[in-house]
Design goal:
This protein is α/β, with parallel strands linked by helices and about 525 residues long. The strands form six sheets. The protein has a five-stranded mixed beta sheet. The longest helix has 17 residues, at about 385-400. The radius of gyration is 31 Å and the shape is elongated.
Length: about 525
Amino acid sequence: MNYYHDSKMETIFEILKQPKTIEDIQLSEPFVNDLILKIITSYGTVKTSTINDITCIHWDILEKCLSNLEKEGLCAPVSGSFLFSSVQYSISKKGREKATGISEENPYIGVAPVSYEDYYQIMDAQLKGRYPIEITPDVVKTTFKDVIGVDYAKESLIESCIIGKGIFIYGPPGTGKTFLTGKMSDLLPPVVIPKFVEFGGKIIQIYDPDFHSMCPEQPEDPRWVKIHAPFVLTGAELSLNKLETNYNVNKGVYETSPIIKANGGILLIDDLGRQRDDPELILNRLIVPMENKKDVVYVRGIPVIVHCNFIPAFSTNLDISIMDEAHLRRAPLHIFLKNPDIIEVAEVFKMNLDYLEEKYNENIFERFMNVYSSINDGGEGLKPTFAHARDVAQICQAVRINRGKDIIDIDVLEGSLERHILIVLQRMNIDIAQITRKTRSFRIKTSQVQETLDALTEFGTIKITHESDAIILDLDDNITPVQLVGFLHQRNINVDRIDLIAESDKELRSSLLEIHENLQLQNK
């Protein structure tokens, strides 16, 4: 017994013995016969061992069903020995005609599904009383073994998993929000799910190998799978349609949404606010599943309740106000990830080089830290991020190989820093977040023209010109006229009138290459 296979899991495994009769499999005999017939038809001639591999149905049930199909003249044994597993069955003309009609109605060929009743019973047994969880110290240690610093964030993630409550994680880009949230599922115990569920003769796909990782130990009934707690990540590509279960005509299955795939684990909505659909609509769609731990799949228009007992996680580098109170109540824990310490970033840089099995001179770390040290201390004063550390390590490997060197030295590091787009932009004092904003031009009419000019140099204006009785200035579109007037009033400057006279998109008037070349010429 251990954290990942406790007494409750043992009980589930005892229940999930492979059924040996039609009564035990909880599927109608016509359904099982039709599934077998479609397989024989698709092959033409097929071994019973292949049918067993595809359907995961016990030999006793297969033998009975194939015998019935043979009696109806739908198929016939054509070769094989006294061992049933080596017998080959071939489809008859009558069988092919029947299979064609069946496939038009339900083209599904694959693992035999479990009944909806069995699915609901097993999921209820596992998920009721799942929280609070006692997470052992060794699980915590293993989960965060490659996470540097951010102890305050780790504590919040652990507490979120203990009580099963959602978490909101926000902060500047590159601070490790997605990486850190991805560790949460390792803190949770596994769950057993069916591969497919049958309802009203239709198939709902539950297991998705893209998101579900199988555990070493598996139930005896191969129609079920024990998986590690899932981590389902969806980001800017998420749409309202993708949060619904959609029918795949070609496969003949209802493909479940991320909401259902995250059952028993974590659902991370990454880059919240960058989706094409309104984020409020997406968050509203999630409220009921977050609250009830269940969602609805419509099978032939009939609502079918399915489990989605996930912990919601939301990540953004935008303002926290993107979520209102109703949404934050479903994710009451929060983490603000600030820019890390320089030493921590250097540790992550070294860890990534070690992961890449790169050899390096020790003096590269002092140079790397100098990039982020303050200008007063002789550094460049750039903002440190964990993403920089990871990216620069990978670029170092590319530069080293490209230059035919055996070791990463200062020369390789310098070349890598010059190739990292965000480092280059910071060195040129270009804020990438501001490039996509609009610029607004205002005319401020005032009798205190000179005082206004002097004051606005502190206000972050992009460009200032003046007339005899007015100031014309350009500002980012996030600054309102009210803020501008309030700023001037604090400096005892009276504003007679303020008008918006133009609005335009910002643009970089020179390419990065041109600016970079100019900087290099200046340095020379």
